[in-house]
């Protein structure tokens, strides 16, 4: 399979750094042309599943406006311009929870929309997390931090309490890639 060729690209909406909409004219491998293919570029983000020394997982319960309700989440946030995703996720972990990680495992980088792009997310598991400060997210969000067992998080996912695909993906990747340390269920 061959990639499409972008022949022309125009910015039709720019609310940088949060959102940019592009209109492209693309040429397909068979020579056909599409004159109005849109791409949406949102800010890159990083999300981390933080594991405490006893094996419990640090979570955050908070209202998320895009979802319109309270959801169980993991620490996450935007990657600032010029910032490496691993640096961003360590910063977010500290800001949102007051914890730092001894070790960070990168689970992958993924685009959330295969055609229009959306945003790029980097997913991590942090182990050996210890509290070193009080949370200071500086966000507009009210947050409740809780350490949960893997069974509790599985149940939250099953009952719809994790309502954001990036958060569900972080959990699924951590489990599927065997990135969580094996511990006695707490």
What is the element layout, followed by pairings?
Elements: E1 5-15, E2 19-27, E3 33-42, E4 45-50, E5 57-64, E6 69-73, E7 76-78, H1 85-97, E8 99-100, E9 103-113, E10 117-127, E11 130-131, E12 143-148, H2 150-158, H3 165-176
Parallel strand pairs: 3-10, 4-10
Antiparallel strand pairs: 1-2, 2-3, 4-7, 5-6, 5-12, 8-11, 9-10
Provide the CATH architecture of the largest domain.
Answer: Alpha-Beta Complex
The whole-angstrom Rg is 19 Å
Q: Classify the secondary structure makeup into a structural class.
A: alpha+beta
- CATH topology-level name of the largest domain: Nucleoside Triphosphate Pyrophosphohydrolase
Low-confidence stretches: none
Question: CATH homologous superfamily name of the largest domain?
Answer: Nucleoside Triphosphate Pyrophosphohydrolase
What does this protein look like?
The chain is an alpha+beta fold and 186 residues long. It folds into 2 domains: 5-42; 45-176, Nucleoside Triphosphate Pyrophosphohydrolase (Alpha-Beta Complex). It has helices at residues 85-97, 150-158, 165-176, and strands at 5-15, 19-27, 33-42, 45-50, 57-64, 69-73, 76-78, 99-100, 103-113, 117-127, 130-131, 143-148. The strands form 3 sheets. Strands 1, 2, 3, 4, 7, 9 and 10 form a 7-stranded mixed beta sheet that branches. The chain has a 3-stranded antiparallel beta sheet with strand order 6-5-12. It starts with a strand and ends in a 10-residue tail after the last helix.
């Amino acid at each position: 399979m061959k990639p499409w060729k972008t022949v022309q690209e125009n910015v039709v909406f720019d609310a940088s750094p949060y959102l940019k909409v592009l209109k492209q004219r693309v040429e397909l491998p068979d020579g056909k042309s599409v004159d109005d293919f849109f791409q949406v570029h949102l800010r890159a983000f990083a999300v981390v599943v933080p594991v405490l020394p006893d094996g419990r997982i640090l979570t955050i319960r908070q209202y998320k406006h895009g979802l319109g309700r309270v959801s169980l989440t993991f620490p996450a946030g935007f990657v600032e311009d010029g910032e490496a995703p691993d640096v961003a996720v360590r910063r977010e972990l500290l800001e949102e929870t007051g914890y730092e990680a001894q070790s960070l495992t990168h689970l992958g980088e993924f685009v959330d929309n295969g055609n229009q792009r959306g945003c790029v997310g980097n997913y991590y598991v942090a182990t050996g997390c210890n509290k070193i400060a009080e949370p200071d997210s500086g966000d507009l969000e009210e947050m409740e931090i809780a350490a949960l067992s893997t069974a509790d998080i599985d149940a939250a996912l099953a009952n719809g309490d994790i309502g954001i695909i990036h958060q569900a993906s972080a959990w699924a990747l951590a489990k599927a890639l065997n990135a969580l340390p094996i511990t006695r269920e707490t």
